[in-house]
Amino acid sequence: MKILGKLVSVIVVLAVLGGVGAVVLPNMTRNKHSELAMALDNVNPMVKTETVYASTNAKPVRHFIGGGGEDEYTYQLLTYNAEGKSRTLTFDSQWRLKPQKYLKISTKGQNVESWGAIARETVPSGVRQNLMMA
């Protein structure tokens, strides 16, 4: 019986720690540009997938040669969701982004799942205003 009581105590403590971590970690990883932040957001069930928008006016923060010998660029972009909430995201691209274009980015926290160029007219108007001021 003593062992069962200790096992239950350990399970309760782990559950509480896991719950607190799931709630606290999204705020700790927000606007962080590390692989760890991306990985934590990717596996955290409290972090939901959302669509954000960005302007392509930023220059790459890093240029390097990929494993296959191709050019790779790392970008840090200020993004906005449809409600106007901002966050900075980092992602890699195998080509330079054309300036004065817009991106629609699917993200789970700091983890960029997909992105693509979109027409200016498809960016929500409030988001477009934020992007023009940034």
Relevant terms:
alpha+beta, 34% helix, 134 residues, single chain
Q: Please give the oligomerization state of what you see.
A: single chain
Q: How helical, in percent, are the residues? A: 25-40%
Distance between the termini: 63 Å
**Class by SSE composition:** alpha+beta
Shape: elongated
Elements, N to C (H/E): HHEEEEEEH
Secondary structure: number of strands: 6
Strand content: 25-35%
Rg over C-alpha atoms, rounded to the nearest angstrom: 19 Å
Count of helix runs:
3
Q: pLDDT under 50 segments (min length 5)?
A: none
How does this structure look, described?
With 134 residues, the protein is α+β, with helices and mostly antiparallel strands. It is 34% helix and 34% strand. It has helices spanning 2-29, 35-43, 125-133; strands spanning 49-55, 62-65, 71-81, 86-93, 102-108, 111-118. Helix 1 packs across helix 2. It is elongated.
Task: Please outline the helices and strands.
Blueprint: H1 2-29, H2 35-43, E1 49-55, E2 62-65, E3 71-81, E4 86-93, E5 102-108, E6 111-118, H3 125-133
Antiparallel strand pairs: 1-3, 1-5, 2-3, 3-4, 5-6
Helix pairs in contact: 1-2
Summarize the structure.
This protein is α+β, with helices and mostly antiparallel strands and 134 residues long. The chain has helices spanning 2-29, 35-43, 125-133; strands at residues 49-55, 62-65, 71-81, 86-93, 102-108, 111-118. Strands 1, 2, 3, 4, 5 and 6 form a 6-stranded antiparallel β-sheet that branches.
